[in-house]
Automatic annotation (TrEMBL), chain A:
Region (Disordered): 1-75
Keywords: Cell membrane, Cytoplasm, Differentiation, Glycoprotein, Golgi apparatus, Membrane, Transmembrane, Transmembrane helix
InterPro entries in the cross-refs: tRNA_Mod/Golgi_Maint
Coiled-coil residues: none
Any one annotated GO CC term: plasma membrane
GO aspect biological process, one term: cell differentiation
Name the UniProt record assigns to this protein: Protein YIPF3
Chain's role: Involved in the maintenance of the Golgi structure. May play a role in hematopoiesis.
Family, similarity comment: Belongs to the YIP1 family.
Compositional bias per record (Polar residues), positions renumbered to this chain: 1-14
Primary localization class, coarse: membrane
Entry's localization field: Cell membrane; Cytoplasm; Golgi apparatus, cis-Golgi network membrane
From TrEMBL, chain B:
Organism: Sparus aurata
Compartmental location: Golgi apparatus membrane; Membrane
Protein name: Protein YIPF
Keyword Membrane applies: yes
Name of the gene: YIPF6
A GO biological process held by the record: endoplasmic reticulum to Golgi vesicle-mediated transport
Length: 343, 226
C-alpha cells in the first residue's frame, strides 16, 4: 500500500490498484503510514477503523468538492457571495454536527438506565418469598449465605415506609403541613437506606467482609419490611407496651436475619462484633426513632415555625380539627407520649 | 477475505451517479399523508378551532378514563395537557388547608406538583426497568389522566366539608375517596398492565397503588382553615 495524495487514475494494475480504492476526490486524502504496520489489513478491527476513517475522509472530501463546485458557480456571478455562501454552509454544518454529537451523548447518558435493568429482573413470587424470608434468621453461619441482589423490593419497601410515615403523621393529629412532612419523610427513609447501606459497606470493606454494595443495599432494604409492619400496626393502635413487644420481636427478627447473613461472610471475632454490632444498633434505633422521636421532631418543627407564641420547651397536643377516627385512643396515645417524655 | 474487505470500499470510488444509470424502484408513502397536509394548513385556521380541537382531544381522553376499556386511544395520541390541567386543579383545591399562617399555602401547591410529577416519573422508570414496552411520555400521560377520579373526589370533599367536618362527613368523604382511589388504580392498570410481560403485572401495579394511595390520603385528610 502506498501513501499518496489525490490522484484519481493511478490504476496501473488490471485488478484495480489499492490507490483507486483508498484515495478519494480532489482533496488531499493522505494516508498516514504510521498506522500501516504489520497488523494492518489483516485484523478485523483495523479494517473497521480504516473504513470509518475512509468514510469520514470521503465525506469531508465530498463536502469540499461540493462546496468547491458551488463556489465556482457562485464565483461566476459574485465573488463575495460565493465565499460567504461557503463559509455560512460550513459553519451551519459544524453547528449541526456539534449539536448532533451532543444530543447523541445526552441520549446515551439517558439510555444508561439500562445498567439498572438486571437489578429489577424479579418475579412477584420471588419478591414475596424474600419478604417473608427477611424475618426468618438462618442459623448457618459457617458458609456464606446467599443474599439476593435486587433493587425492586428494597425500593418499594422504602416508598411504603414513606407512605406509612405520612399516614402516621395524619392519624397522630399533627398539623398537616404537606411540604415539610413529605420532604422530611422521603429524606429520612431514603437517607437511612442509602446512608446506612454505604456505611455498612464501608465497614465491611475495612474488615474485609465478603459483601458487595448491592448486597448491603438489598439486605438493608428488605430489613425495612419489619419496620413497615411494626409502624403500620402501632400508628393505628397507640399502646406503648404493644410497641415495645413488636419492636423487640419483629425488629429483633429482621436484625438477626441481617446479622446472620453478615456473620456468615466475615472472619474473625472483632470484625464480626464491629460489623454486626453497628448494624443491629442502627437498625433497632431507627425503629425507635421513627416511632417516638419522629413525631417529636415534627412537632418541634411546627413549634419553631409557629413563632414566639409558644414557650420553647412546652409540648402540648395541638388543638386543630383533625380526624375523629381514633379519638379516644389518640388522646390516650398523646397522653402516654407526654408521660414518657416527662419521666 | 480481501474481496469482502474491498467491497465496502468499492462503492466509494465513484461518488456521483452517472446519468445513464436509471434509478428506479417503488416508494410507498404511509397513509398518514392526508393528515400531514391538514397539519400544514392549520397555521391559517382561527385560534378558536385550534383550541377547540385540543380541548376535544383532551375531553375524549377524559371519557376514556371514565370508562376504562382496553383501548389504545390514550396511548396512541398521548398529550400532557390533561395531566397538567388535573394537577393544577388538584393543587388549587388542596389550597386553603388548616395552616397557621398564610404563606404556608405555597409549599402545598409546589408539593402536590412535585409528588404527582416525580411519582409518575418514578413509576414510569420502574415499569421500563421491569421490561415494559410503553414509552416514557405515554406512561406519564396515562398516570396523569387517571388522577381525574381523585380530582373529582377532592371537589366533592370540599363541597361536603362546607356542611361541616363531623364523623358523618368524614364517613362520606372516606367512601368517596376510597371509591375514586380504586377507580384510578383500576383505570391506570387497564392501560399500563398490557405493556408488561404477563407474570410481572403485580410488580408494576404496586407502585401505582402506592402513588394513588398517597394522593388519596392527601385528599382525605384535607381540612379547611377555620
Amino acid at each position: 500500500m502506498s501513501a499518496g495524495s489525490g490522484s484519481r487514475n493511478t490504476n496501473t494494475e488490471p485488478w484495480g490498484s489499492f490507490d483507486d480504492n483508498l484515495i478519494q476526490g480532489g482533496g488531499s486524502a493522505v494516508i498516514d503510514m504510521e498506522n500501516m504496520d504489520d497488523t494492518s489489513g489483516s485484523s478485523f478491527e483495523d479494517m473497521g477503523e480504516m473504513h470509518q476513517r475512509m468514510k469520514e475522509e470521503e465525506e469531508v472530501a465530498a463536502e469540499a468538492a461540493a462546496t468547491e463546485d458551488d463556489n465556482t458557480d457562485d464565483g461566476e456571478f459574485l465573488g463575495m457571495k460565493g465565499i460567504k455562501g461557503q463559509l455560512g454552509r460550513q459553519v451551519a454544518d459544524e453547528v449541526w454536527q456539534a449539536g448532533k454529537r451532543q444530543a447523541s451523548r445526552a441520549f446515551n447518558l439517558y439510555a444508561n438506565i439500562d445498567i439498572l435493568r438486571p437489578y429489577f429482573d424479579v418475579e412477584p413470587v420471588q419478591v414475596r418469598s424474600r419478604l417473608i424470608e427477611s424475618m426468618i434468621p438462618v442459623r448457618m453461619i459457617n458458609f456464606p449465605q446467599k443474599i439476593a441482589g435486587e433493587l425492586y423490593g428494597p425500593l418499594m419497601l422504602v416508598f411504603t415506609l414513606v407512605a406509612i410515615l405520612l399516614h402516621g403523621m395524619k392519624t397522630s393529629g399533627t398539623v398537616i403541613r404537606e411540604g415539610t412532612l413529605m420532604g422530611t419523610a422521603i429524606g429520612t427513609c431514603f437517607g437511612y437506606w442509602l446512608g446506612v447501606s454505604s456505611f455498612i459497606y464501608f465497614l465491611a470493606y475495612l474488615v474485609n467482609a465478603q459483601i458487595t454494595m448491592l448486597q448491603t443495599l438489598s439486605l438493608l432494604g428488605y430489613g425495612l419490611f419489619g419496620h413497615c409492619v411494626v409502624l403500620l400496626v402501632t400508628y393505628n393502635i397507640h399502646f406503648h407496651f404493644l410497641f415495645y413487644v413488636l419492636w423487640l420481636l419483629l425488629g429483633g427478627l429482621s436484625t438477626l436475619r441481617m446479622v446472620a447473613a453478615l456473620l456468615s461472610r466475615t472472619v474473625g471475632h472483632t470484625p464480626r462484633l464491629l460489623l454486626c454490632g453497628t448494624l443491629s444498633l442502627l437498625h433497632m434505633l431507627f425503629l425507635l426513632y421513627l416511632h417516638f422521636a419522629y413525631h417529636k421532631i415534627v412537632e418541634g418543627l411546627l413549634d419553631s415555625l409557629e413563632g414566639p407564641n409558644m414557650a420553647p420547651m412546652q409540648r402540648v397536643a395541638r388543638d386543630v380539627p383533625e380526624l375523629t377516627l381514633n379519638a379516644t385512643l389518640r388522646i390516650q396515645g398523646v397522653q402516654l407520649l407526654l408521660d414518657s417524655f416527662s419521666t | 477475505l480481501s474481496d469482502e474487505a474491498s467491497r465496502p470500499f468499492a462503492g466509494l470510488s465513484d461518488v456521483s451517479i452517472s446519468e445513464d444509470i436509471p434509478v428506479e424502484g417503488d416508494i410507498s408513502v404511509p397513509m398518514g399523508s392526508s393528515r400531514r397536509d391538514d397539519e400544514f394548513s392549520t397555521l391559517d385556521e382561527p385560534v378558536k378551532e385550534t383550541i377547540l380541537r385540543d380541548l376535544r382531544a383532551v375531553g375524549n381522553k377524559f371519557i376514556h378514563v371514565l370508562y376504562p376499556k382496553r383501548s389504545s386511544a390514550l396511548l396512541r395520541d398521548w398529550d400532557l395537557w390533561g395531566p397538567l390541567l388535573l394537577c393544577v386543579t388538584l393543587a388549587l383545591l388542596l389550597q386553603g388547608g388548616s395552616a397557621d399562617s398564610d404563606d404556608q399555602g405555597g409549599p402545598q401547591f409546589a408539593e402536590v406538583f412535585v409528588i404527582i410529577w416525580f411519582g409518575s416519573i418514578i413509576i414510569t422508570l420502574n415499569s421500563k426497568l421491569l421490561g415494559g414496552t410503553i414509552s416514557f411520555f405515554q406512561s406519564l400521560c396515562v398516570l396523569g389522566y387517571c388522577i381525574m377520579p381523585l380530582t373529582v373526589a377532592m371537589a366533592v370533599c370540599r363541597i361536603v366539608l362546607v356542611g361541616g367536618s363531623g364523623p358523618v362527613s368524614f364517613g362520606v368523604r372516606l367512601v368517596v375517596v376510597t371509591a375514586s382511589f380504586g377507580w384510578s388504580t383500576f383505570a391506570s392498570t387497564a392501560f399500563l398492565a398490557d405493556s408488561q410481560p404477563a407474570n410481572r403485572k403485580a410488580l408494576v401495579v404496586y407502585p401505582v397503588f402506592l402513588f394513588y394511595f398517597v394522593i388519596g390520603w392527601m385528599v382525605l385528610t384535607f381540612s379547611p382553615a377555620q
